[in-house]
Amino acid sequence: MQKLIFGNWKMNLSAADAVTLAQAASKLSIDAGLLRVAVFPSFTALAGVSASLKGSSVALGAQDCFWENTGAFTGEVSPTQLKELNCTHVLVGHSERRQSMNETDEMVNRKLRSALSAGLTPVMCVGETDNDRRSGQWSNVIARQVAKGLADVKVSGNQEIVIAYEPVWAIGSGRACVPENAREAHALVRNAVIELFAPAVAQKNFRIIYGGSVDEKNIASYLALEGIDGALVGGASQRAASFAGLIEAVQK
Ligand code: PGA
């Protein structure tokens, strides 16, 4: 099955720099049978990046969306507006939003359902903090985020939901999760999905990827493990050379 490599550019690039990076990404040689690559620029860069990626095998995603499609919601951006710009994916519930914007599991759930019904692939981020890990609560936290994030979700046909397991302490820290611990957490996420959906749906419609200090040196060690379907990459996706190195490492 195709592995997913998603680049989360966060709030780090100007629109012009995002276009330059997207142009470099669009020239990468990607075996689409093996890999699905998508990039997630800021809202302000989506239109420019969308134009640069046209005709390439790199897909486009946004870093967040609102749960309504139109209306008096100043400052928000809806799933249908993202579709207009050729987005096919959208992150929901990234830990930086959960922490800095106080996003709750309920808000993440509303965003996920709305993205799904607009025809986008939601990429729901879950993961424990350092404290959760130390206090032995990490597995409960992840199971709760998955269960609440997927509450009342109906999946049919080829609809796809991606869950990104991103331990908060591993994000941007250079302290990537030990691959075996990531594999264990992925199995836990998969089981939490199986609690809610038929096993066939949990297998076919859900992909589970790892995120947190992934780079060109460690990526292969995650993708080699059973149950890890790809990676959500922050820092290393924001420079053309390291992103190219990452894609190369995966296709070797
Ligand atoms: P990082 O970020 O690769 O820089 O740790 C990952 C993420 O936040 O999605």
Task: Summarize it.
Helices cover 42% and strands 17% of the residues. By secondary structure, it is an alpha/beta fold.
Tell me what you see in this structure.
By secondary structure, this protein is of the alpha/beta class. It has a single domain, classed as Aldolase class I (TIM Barrel, Alpha-Beta Barrel), CATH 3.20.20.70. The chain contains eleven helices and eight strands. An eight-stranded parallel beta barrel has the order 1-2-3-4-5-6-7-8, surrounded by six helices. The mean pLDDT is 97. The chain binds 2-phosphoglycolic acid. 2-phosphoglycolic acid binds next to β8.
Write out the CATH superfamily name.
Aldolase class I
Q: State the order of secondary-structure elements, H for helix, E for strand.
A: EHEHEHEHHEHHEHHEHEH
Task: Name the overall outline.
Answer: globular
CATH architecture: Alpha-Beta Barrel
Overall pLDDT score:
97
- The first-to-last residue Cα distance is 16 Å
> Which small-molecule species are bound to the chains here?
2-phosphoglycolic acid
β-strand percent reads 15-25%
Q: Which regions have little confidence, pLDDT < 50, spanning 5+ residues?
A: none
- Which structural category do the helix and sheet elements fall into? alpha/beta
Percentage of helical residues? 40-55%
Determine the number of helices (DSSP H or I, runs of at least 4 residues): 11
Query: How is the CATH topology named?
Result: TIM Barrel
Largest sheet: 8 strands, parallel, barrel
Spatial extent as radius of gyration = 17 Å
For the record, the CATH class is Alpha Beta
Sheet with most strands: strand arrangement: 1-2-3-4-5-6-7-8
The count of β-strands is: 8
Number of domain modules: 1
